């Protein structure tokens, strides 16, 4: 049994505030891709989904003269650093296992290399999954952050992901016994 569900995370006011900046649709789609990839690689889909959902929670809106400035964002953004810390604090507050919270936060930290001086960092499988899931949903000029999704649709998708994760974890547990 998981301590913290995606629904717990998604409905928290902190998540709602910051996912609104980075795009609920994108966050949920990355979580869905992350679960698919975790299943393919026999990894923990719960950690993958949480990292996928929260991977952009550190985004800041970069505007110049009232318009989104993608170039300013690319030059100065450190959303993965802010997001890793924000997600870690949120997960601990919600009661997540501390080691799991750390793994999720590190996957968020390393989901982009735009701010890293050395881009040749060896990543864990979970970290690679989040990079790939994010890339699977990208659109040019960051437009994936501006797709809209109705709250009811988002809640349905989150509930379905929670159900899928429980099913996969149950299968993994039965195989290991």
TrEMBL record:
Pfam families: HD. It comes from the Bacteria. PANTHER family: BIS(5'-NUCLEOSYL)-TETRAPHOSPHATASE, SYMMETRICAL (PTHR35795:SF1), SLR1885 PROTEIN (PTHR35795). One of its GO terms (molecular function) is hydrolase activity. The keyword Phosphoprotein does not apply. PROSITE patterns: HD. SMART domains: HDc. Keywords: Hydrolase. The keyword Electron transport does not apply. SUPFAM superfamilies: HD-domain/PDEase-like. Residues 23-139 form the HD domain. This is Phosphohydrolase. It comes from Bacillus weihaiensis.
């Amino acid at each position: 049994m998981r301590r913290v569900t995606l629904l717990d995370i998604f409905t928290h006011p902190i998540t709602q505030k910051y996912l609104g900046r980075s795009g609920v649709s994108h966050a949920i789609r990355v979580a869905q891709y992350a679960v698919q990839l975790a299943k393919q690689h026999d990894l923990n889909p719960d950690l993958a989904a949480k990292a996928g959902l929260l991977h952009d929670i550190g985004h800041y809106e970069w505007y110049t003269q009232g318009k989104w400035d993608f170039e300013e964002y690319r030059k100065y953004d450190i959303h993965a650093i802010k997001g890793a810390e924000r997600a870690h604090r949120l997960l601990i507050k919600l009661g997540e296992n501390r080691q799991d919270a750390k793994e999720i936060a590190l996957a968020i930290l390393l989901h982009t290399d735009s701010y890293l001086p050395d881009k040749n960092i060896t990543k864990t499988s979970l970290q690679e999954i989040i990079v790939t899931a994010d890339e699977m949903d990208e659109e040019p000029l960051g437009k994936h952050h501006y797709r809209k999704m109705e709250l009811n649709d988002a809640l349905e998708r989150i509930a379905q992901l929670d159900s899928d994760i429980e099913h996969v974890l149950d299968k993994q547990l039965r195989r290991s016994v």
